């Protein structure tokens, strides 16, 4: 466990990752290489609905500075600078995008054994300002986040959450969408290495009286193979197989079915990440 309560974005993250991470419906190929100087280069090609796209990403790390740059097929350039400990126990992240420079922002994260603080602002004339605070310990965290639009003088987002984390399990409750949605999740690890786990999540939207209940989990078949599954009360079933090939290369195959409308064409996705 970490020495503090973690960021607000960490509340409910374990359940979210188990239910969504690596589930894809496209064909994706990633090739990564790393030079002896520490420069990492990743090339990615994605095929979506018969259309192929690709991007190139480069990462360089020197001491406490991490530099990332990504260029896609539309010539959009995204650059991220991460500076650790400019201020003790802090992290500063500057995200610059071209030509859509209005979406660029700067973020500062501060970590304390009993609290974390994050503030972010867009780099434009009327910036939106995001602020989040989390109080507690690695086993218990209580937090809130808000977004303020300076051009209108209104709060565009405010959420609150609570999390309880133990070595074998974690539970969280998040009140989001300006109080219109409440989400509760629970994750239970089935082994000491935390490769196998079960998860349950329920979401209630008050404005529409809609409930979504999702169960799922992951199971380590062997040291190199993991299978995952998720199913919600609307009949959406997702399955995933992930296998580590030679070295650190990973093959992922996933599918999604509508069990209440089997005549619909299921979605399939394949991803291959080749690493040295």
Automatic annotation (TrEMBL):
Gene3D superfamilies: Porin. GO terms for molecular function: porin activity; voltage-gated monoatomic anion channel activity. InterPro entries: Porin_dom_sf, Porin_Euk, Porin_Euk/Tom40. Keywords: Ion transport, Membrane, Porin, Transmembrane, Transmembrane beta strand, Transport. It is found in: Membrane. The keyword DNA-binding does not apply. One of its GO terms (cellular component) is mitochondrial outer membrane. It holds the Pfam family Porin_3. Its main location: membrane. Belongs to the eukaryotic mitochondrial porin (TC 1.B.8.1) family. Forms a channel through the cell membrane that allows diffusion of small hydrophilic molecules. The channel adopts an open conformation at low or zero membrane potential and a closed conformation at potentials above 30-40 mV. The open state has a weak anion selectivity whereas the closed state is cation-selective. This is Voltage-dependent anion-selective channel protein.
